[in-house]
Specification:
The chain has about 625 residues and is an alpha/beta fold. The protein contains 26 helices and 19 strands. Strand 15, helix 22 and strand 16 form a beta-alpha-beta unit. The longest helix has 19 residues.
């Protein structure tokens, strides 16, 4: 086990190599275990960075779940995974938590191949109930007796997928416990002695025996069955807010204090003895137990390394404007000039750069919660009747609304602009959040225009260009900053569909799509190659591509998207259709999921670092020479 930090003894944690060790403790020791988990979490994440506030809020719940249930045999499924660090601490990974979100280290989310305690991989929201229900179906089919617990947050519960799963689960006679971690929404009554007492009563074996026995006896009397059900619902409706979940077929308990370990343990034990679909509503506080995170859970949702004593985060060098900030400036400026502009985001106000817009244009700002499908079709409806919606969304989350992108927007050729952030590799968040596929999944959609800026200045120009375009258009840009090109303050546009040659060379032409352009220029200096900033993935600049093919020996396409179906594939299709026999090398992300690391390390792993790109081009040239190909001008 790891050594304790100076001044930070972990007397109980040092005895826990797995949840089985913790189950040997007396219940009265669990609150102290939770306190040690919380201190260890703050001390470690202060060194590594990562998601903090969500994990702090579920420490007691995590301790209670692993104490009551026989994990990993009982399946514990966490939603999203932002809150998974306490789970990792208690399931044999405490020693490795210092490697969190680093190359070859622990993932910041759940991973099935990382631990047998990670029953289901997570990263996107609202999947836990569906996954746990599927496991319950599998257990029944195989004749196995085990518990299935899905933990979901109030934000994740806003997604349609979660309600689809609840609707299905309520109709099945399967053992499933859904735990709602309510840490923000006002759907719950005040938590206190009365609510906690009622939770104990409603989850107790005595209450449920009386409940079921009374229903059995009285339901046999003429006309009494409906009356019994009505009386039960009215009685519970007076003291609990769970009518919706009861109507879906769940036995609802709560709300209870999610930081009271004895209450959690006793309630979970009672609910474990029940059968069928059960729903436990716990109220927690994000950032619990660490004052800076309690005071500002949004800022401490995801943190860089910080001083645990003060909460102050590290800053590295002078601040540079990110692509997200460029979008933030543009959308506010564009809204000043066009009252039709409205902004839509699926619960990503801060991440997508809409905080200032929401302040300045509150009536034109729509945060729909974690509901990507709804966000896109909402925008489609807005576009039908005269508004010009801008949907600010991450590349990885737009995947969740693919049918709506295709069927509701593109099929009807509606004027919706998509500002797609986090395109390409995203660093420490890893494969679950990488924007590796948007060029491929969007390029095949008719009517869809796709723009890929090379730097911050071009990003602003492209956002305005896409916005004034009459039809669906997607601008994809990466996490963080680029080469630091300062955008102007106006609302200028680019010539539609036009690429620009930025370096003259001979023999080799590099067609760069997006922010790998600076790397392409460095490679070109070494190889005396031509470079084209392609700018538009769709429509592709046909004339420029064919001119490069006719005047160069080798074409190299370069993109931070998977090669399959991406921008390079568009070039290949054009050359084939035009009867050109040019030699082409497509450089992009490989046919693999790239795990967490720094963005630079991920590009190296993908073969897209400066040296790797140069070597791959030289290898292609050597292959041509070996085949006796004659060089062209």
């Amino acid at each position: 086990m790891p050594h304790s930090l100076p001044g930070e003894p972990y007397e109980l944690l040092d005895q826990i190599a797995s949840p089985a060790d913790m189950r040997a403790f007396a219940p009265g020791q669990l609150q102290a275990v939770a306190a040690e988990v919380r201190r260890f979490l703050v001390n470690t994440v202060s060194q590594t960075g990562g998601h903090l506030a969500a994990g702090l809020g579920v420490v007691e719940l995590t301790v209670a779940l692993h104490y009551v249930f026989n994990t990993p045999d009982d399946r514990l499924v966490w939603d999203v995974g932002h809150q998974a660090y306490p789970h990792k601490i208690l399931t044999g990974r405490r020693e490795r938590l210092v490697t969190l979100r680093k190359k070859d280290g622990l993932s910041g989310f759940l991973k099935r191949d990382e631990s047998e305690y990670d029953a289901f991989g997570a990263g996107h929201s609202s999947t836990s109930i569906s996954a746990a229900l599927g496991m319950a179906v599998a257990a029944k089919a195989r004749g196995m007796q085990r518990e299935h617990i899905a933990v979901i947050g109030d934000g994740a519960l806003s997604a349609g997928m979660a309600f689809e799963a609840l609707n299905h689960a309520g109709a099945l006679d399967l053992d499933l416990l859904v735990v709602l971690n309510d840490n923000d929404m006002s759907i719950s009554a005040p938590v206190g002695a009365i609510s906690n007492y009622l939770a104990r009563v409603l989850s107790s074996g005595f209450y449920n025996r009386v409940r079921e026995g009374g229903k059995f006896v009285l339901s046999g009397l003429p006309g009494m069955k409906d009356l019994v059900h009505s009386i039960e619902e009215h009685m519970k409706g007076m003291v609990t807010p769970g009518t919706l979940f009861e109507e879906l077929g769940f036995n609802y308990i709560g709300p209870i204090d999610g930081h009271d370990v004895p209450l959690l343990v006793s309630t979970l034990r009672n609910m474990k003895a029940m059968r069928g679909p059960r729903f436990l509503h716990v109220v927690t506080r994000k950032g619990r137990g660490y004052t800076p995170a309690e005071d500002d859970p949004c800022v401490y949702h995801g943190v860089s390394p910080f001083n645990p004593s003060t909460g102050k985060m590290e800053t590295k060098g002078a601040a540079v404007r990110t692509f997200t900030q460029v979008f933030s400036d543009w959308v506010c400026d564009a809204a000043e000039h066009d009252e039709r502009l409205v902004a839509v985001t699926p619960a990503m106000c801060e991440g997508s750069g809409l905080v200032e817009f929401a302040k300045r244009f509150p009536q034109r700002y729509f945060d729909v919660g974690i509901a990507e499908q709804h966000a896109v079709t909402l925008a489609a409806g807005m576009a039908c009747d005269g508004l010009k919606p801008v949907v600010a969304i991450y590349s990885t989350f737009l995947q969740r609304a693919y049918d709506q992108l295709l069927h509701d927007v593109a099929l009807q050729n509606l004027d919706v602009t998509f500002a797609v952030d986090r395109a390409g590799q995203v660093g420490a968040d890893g494969a679950t959040h990488a924007g590796s596929f948007d060029l491929s999944y969007a390029r095949c959609i008719p009517n869809m225009a796709i723009l890929a800026p090379a730097d911050e200045a071009e990003c602003r120009l492209m956002l305005q260009t896409a916005y004034v375009h009459e039809g669906p258009a997607l601008v994809r840009y990466p996490r963080g900053a680029g080469c630091g090109a300062q955008p102007g303050g106006g609302l200028d546009t680019l010539v539609w569909g036009r690429a620009v040659q930025v370096r003259d060379g001979s023999g080799i032409a590099i067609l760069a799509f997006g922010t790998l352009l600076p790397t392409a220029l460095e490679v070109a200096e070494r190889l005396a190659a031509s470079v084209v900033n392609m700018r538009f993935v769709k429509p592709l600049d046909r004339d420029t591509v064919l001119r490069m093919a006719d005047t160069h020996r080798l074409l190299v396409t370069l993109e931070e998207n998977v090669v399959q179906g991406g921008a390079g594939s568009a070039v290949n299709e054009l050359l084939l259709a035009s009867g050109r026999t040019a030699h082409v090398v497509n450089l992009g992300l490989p046919d693999a999921f790239i795990e967490q690391a720094t963005q630079a390390e991920q590009l190296e792993m993908a073969g897209l670092s400066l040296d790797r790109i140069e070597q791959r081009i030289r290898d292609a040239l050597a292959a041509l020479d070996g085949n006796g190909q004659a060089a062209r001008a």
